[in-house]
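pinned: reference chain
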Amino acid sequence: MKIGFDLMGSDNSPHIEIEALKFIKDEIKSEIIVVGKGDYEKEVKNLGFEYRIAEEVIGMHEIPTVAVRQKRNSSLGVLFSMLQKKEIDGLVSAGNTGAIMGFSFFDLGTIEENARPGLAITLPTQSGYSIMIDVGANIKPKPPDLLYYGIMGSVLAKIILKKENPRVGLLNVGSESVKGDEIRQKAYQLLKEGIPDFVGNIEGNNLMKGFVDVIVTDGFTGNVLLKYAEGIVDALWNMLKETVDAAMRRKFGQFLVKPAMKDLKAKFSYEEYGGGILLGVNGVVIICHGHSSPLALKNALLMARCCVECNIIEEIKKVMKK
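pinned: its structure tokens
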């Protein structure tokens, strides 16, 4: 098994990526092929990793369609060419999300001819974690797309969350089947007929309560919700620190409370899941934040390995054929 790793992806590349490699070198060093500019070949090889040289880099602000056509020799272009040729089994990048999805469509193709891929992440809840799909790949899904998201999310929940019969819910403005716009109403019926463990609509105030294992939504809503959740945790963390510091003047009280606060913040941190997996394409593609930390990238690499080991693409294909 080989996982391709984009050295030039993040906002602070390649330094953050190199730190991630240092974190993970004793775990899966032999399984990673790093792709980046020639300037960093010696440093990465000295860490013990295989290296492939890319002549170009796709910046965060480049137009994805243009970059995909014109920068085939970029780190992303080289990685997707390797994945297409099966020289690697999956890839991880914190680069331009639009370009990653563009390469995925053109180089890998989709599992189902008329199915749009969805980006899935793990979302912390009171009772553990749930899968949320989509968080940015498709902002205008059709009802069948939302059905595919439920199916693919269920497969991922079985693999990542170890749920035998994942409960699937459709994010909506009310619990009744007639709530929401026409797309949600039609999607509700498709999910009800197509997924045995579909439990109906779920409202935003219940997302963190762990009532469902898979949350189905469109890419626009999912992306806004994800970023809001990350932002609100940071804001609450700062407010709680100020409150604790003001209310508990004794060091002993702070000693008891602050570790619990840190544990809560860690659970909600994007670093815990590392990145999202683009489900629906013919390959394991993990997309990370541009501002990812070394720990987040390390966890993304481990997630990619898990998905490859569990053969998630073939598992999704099996379910789709039923």
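why pinned: The chain has two domains: 1-111+275-311, 116-247. The domain at 1-111+275-311 is CATH 3.40.718.10 (Isopropylmalate Dehydrogenase).
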